């Protein structure tokens, strides 16, 4: 505190009274300093007149530094700029935001860091002038433990969701594998029947071709599910050195019929010198197929000019595959939720696609990110690390 100097003791009655008052002021100072919470007195112009020891500790200013400074030095924006007006308005209209109310606000330390406080302000009139007394509790520790607890709850909730996702995927894998195997064998059997037909026509040949594609697709889906089950069980699938451009071409061939029917043009932009990478090819293709499907669905409302551009580039330690569409893009408020399991905006959607895709990319040591394109539409980027084993 800025201690007031005491006068030498005198005998006169008025000096005696003054001395008693001074003693009580000294005692008042001591009381001020003994308070556990910061206690700050400001005058009607908002200038600091008292600043106890707890205030020095909490805000980092000594009382001498704080004395007669505008109290807004203790406030971050926007309060910092608004406080003078606020005080004037209060004095004119009595309209109070904090005085007599008290609430949690943010404060600014001398070193610039912002921290949460609980502030209550009382008003007294001394010789007709208003004086305001602020009592401040630093609640950083309480807030931190609250947010730590929230984080733990969130983490537990998300682990529970991933657990549910795992169980669901295992159940689905089992249920889906059987019909897929049946589809594959029916398709092969039909193909053999067509092969042996006497009257060979163009139609029969086309049918044979289509049946072969059905069989390949069904087997591939079965393989994806087998790997997915493996991924859930062991955390990772089978990795081999692969050329991502070939993987993309391969998946485009498989999705050919779908793509043609949806009226989407697909362009593959290749960059030279892309190293091979260690990946589980089936999983990478699963991610690609998911992104292509999502892009096609996103453009379903567009009449013409539906286009997906797939580009491959090497960027720092990653090979990146970008799948860009010209659809509506991602609304700002959905970016945070996109990769969460069960987030979907589609009526028949499961909302598992992107969550699984991101998990797959993470188990590859990479990631999956999303951006809106400047010219419209969304771009999803698969990041695959280039390792020592890459070539
Ligand atoms: P689902 O396709 O079952 O909805 P996903 O996890 O694959 O599940 O996708 C989640 C949501 O992300 C979709 O419902 C959609 O709203 C949004 N989304 C995904 N891809 C795109 C895209 N290319 N353009 C716009 N929105 C997309």
- In angstroms, what is the radius of gyration? 36 Å
* Spatial strand sequence of the major β-sheet: 2-1-5-4-3
Spans of at least 5 consecutive residues with low confidence: 1-10
Q: Helix proportion of residues, in percent?
A: 40-55%
- The total of beta strands comes to 12
Tell me the distance between the termini: 71 Å
Shape: elongated
* Main sheet properties: 5 strands, antiparallel
Heterogens: adenosine-5'-diphosphate
What is the average per-residue confidence, as pLDDT, rounded to a whole number? Answer: 82
Count of alpha/pi helices? 10
The oligomeric state is single chain
Structural class: alpha+beta
Strand content: 15-25%
Order of helices and strands: HEEHHHEEEHHEHHEEHEEHEE
Topology:
Blueprint: H1 13-34, E1 38-42, E2 48-51, H2 53-59, H3 63-66, H4 79-93, E3 103-108, E4 114-126, E5 129-138, H5 140-195, H6 202-234, E6 240-242, H7 244-254, H8 256-262, E7 265-269, E8 277-279, H9 281-298, E9 307-315, E10 318-324, H10 353-363, E11 367-372, E12 378-385
Parallel strand pairs: 7-9
Antiparallel strand pairs: 1-2, 1-5, 3-4, 4-5, 6-8, 9-10, 10-12, 11-12
Helix pairs in contact: 5-6, 7-9, 9-10
């Amino acid at each position: 505190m800025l201690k007031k100097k005491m006068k030498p003791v005198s005998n006169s009655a008025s000096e005696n009274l003054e001395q008693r008052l001074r003693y009580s002021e000294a005692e008042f100072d001591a009381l001020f300093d003994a308070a556990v919470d910061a206690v700050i007195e400001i005058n009607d112009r908002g200038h600091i007149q008292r600043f106890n020891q707890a205030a020095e500790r909490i805000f980092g200013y000594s009382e001498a530094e704080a004395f007669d400074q505008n109290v807004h030095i203790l406030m971050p924006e926007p309060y910092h700029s608004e406080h003078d007006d606020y005080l004037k308005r209060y004095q004119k209209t009595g309209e109070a935001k904090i005085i007599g109310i008290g609430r949690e606000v943010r404060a600014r330390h001398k070193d610039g860091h912002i921290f949460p406080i609980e502030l209550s302000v009382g008003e007294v009139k001394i010789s007709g002038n208003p004086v305001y007394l602020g009592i401040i509790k630093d609640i950083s520790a309480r807030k931190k433990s609250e947010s730590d607890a929230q984080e733990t709850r969130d983490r537990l909730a998300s682990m529970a969701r991933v657990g549910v996702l795992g169980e669901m995927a295992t159940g689905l894998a089992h249920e889906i594998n059987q019909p897929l195997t049946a589809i594959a064998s029916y398709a092969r059997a039909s193909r053999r029947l067509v092969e042996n037909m006497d009257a060979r026509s163009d139609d029969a040949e086309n049918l044979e071709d289509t049946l072969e594609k059905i069989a390949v697709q069904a087997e591939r889906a079965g393989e994806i599910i087998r790997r997915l089950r493996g991924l859930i069980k062991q955390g990772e699938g089978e990795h081999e050195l692969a050329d991502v451009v070939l993987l993309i071409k391969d998946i485009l061939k498989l999705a050919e019929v779908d793509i043609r029917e949806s009226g989407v043009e697909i362009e593959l932009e290749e960059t030279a010198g892309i190293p091979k990478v260690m990946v589980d090819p089936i999983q990478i293709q699963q991610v690609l197929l998911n992104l292509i499907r999502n892009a096609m669905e996103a453009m379903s409302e567009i009449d013409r000019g539906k286009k997906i551009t797939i580009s491959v580039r090497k960027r720092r330690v990653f090979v990146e595959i970008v799948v860009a569409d010209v659809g509506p893009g991602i609304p700002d408020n959905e970016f945070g939720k996109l990769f969460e399991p069960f987030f979907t905006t589609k009526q028949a959607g499961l909302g598992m696609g992107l969550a699984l895709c991101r998990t797959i990319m993470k188990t590859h040591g990479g990631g999956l990110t999303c951006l809106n394109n400047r010219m419209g539409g969304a771009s999803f980027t698969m990041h695959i690390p280039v390792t020592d084993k890459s070539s």
